[in-house]
Amino acid sequence: MEDILILFYENREFIFLILVSIFLGIEIISNVPAVLHTPLMSGANAIHGVVVIGSIIIMLQADPTNYYALILGFLAVILGTLNVVGGFVVTDRMLEMFKKKAR
User: Could you tell me which residue ranges the NAD(P) transhydrogenase alpha subunit C-terminal domain spans (predicted)?
Assistant: First the structure.
């Protein structure tokens, strides 16, 4: 438990930045018109592709005994992959709406 408190104390600026980013992202996304959701999702796919690759690189360079870095890297890979796959599913469904129907 003491290790977690030390980790929190040493990284409190980064934790604060992440929390502010989460609230800012929620506020921005909630105000986007429905017409722009598909281009926004395409941009998020590109960004999360970079997140997935970066987190894999970080995990490969982390010390095997540094469990915090490995757990955070693993979570970043899983959540980034889920976002990329979800973005492709949403984009595919949106593009399906514009296809001409067979007679």
Answer: 16-100
E-assigned strands of the chain? none
CA-based angle 98:40:81, to the nearest 5?
100
Q: Which of 85, 60, 81 is nearest to 70 (CA)?
A: 60
Domain locations in the chain?
1-31, 35-103
Return all residues near 33 (Cβ < 8 A) that are at least 6 apart.
Answer: none
Q: How far is CA 3 from CA 7, 10, 70, in A?
A: 6, 11, 16
The predicted-structure confidence for 13-40, as pLDDT tens digits, reads as follows: 888 888 899 899 888 877 877 666 666 6
pLDDT digits (tens, 9 = 90+) for 51-73: 889 889 888 998 889 888 888 88
C-alpha dihedral sign at 30, 22, 71, 77: positive
d(CA 7, CA 13): 11
